[in-house]
Amino acid sequence: MAQAVLRLPYPNDCHRYYEKSLMSCPPNFHWNDLLKRCEIQTLGGCVFNDTQWDSTSPPVTEAVNLPAICDKKLGQLIPYPGDCTRFIHCDYLPFVKTCPQYLFWNSLLLTCDKICV
């Protein structure tokens, strides 16, 4: 299968990016969406649809429930799930803070540091 890969920056995170791929089946093959693979044209069951591949759409991001994460942690600084460049300040109204460029949240020292711990 030939492919074209689009690499885009991940919003608000300089350490991550995401990829979108536009794939092509080999000659004389069509995509079979039911089986999720390329099949010989006569078996592929290709059906055109009107949906368009949007190369500029933002990635699907996981929602972080700050009140639930900060439950019973009032006044604490905790790591942001899956992102060492951010941390959460659990207050009556929890909020996310970002470390300065080239620094990461260090949970042992409770500060931004050169390493992610």
UniProtKB/TrEMBL annotation:
One matching Pfam family: CBM_14
GO cellular component assignments: extracellular region
Domain Chitin-binding type-2: 67-113
SMART domains on file: ChtBD2 (SM00494)
SUPFAM superfamilies: Invertebrate chitin-binding proteins (SSF57625)
GO MF term set: chitin binding
This protein's record includes keyword DNA repair: no
Keywords attached to this entry: Chitin-binding, Disulfide bond, Glycoprotein, Repeat, Signal
Full protein name: Peritrophin-1
Organism annotation: Drosophila kikkawai (Fruit fly)
Gene: LOC108073830
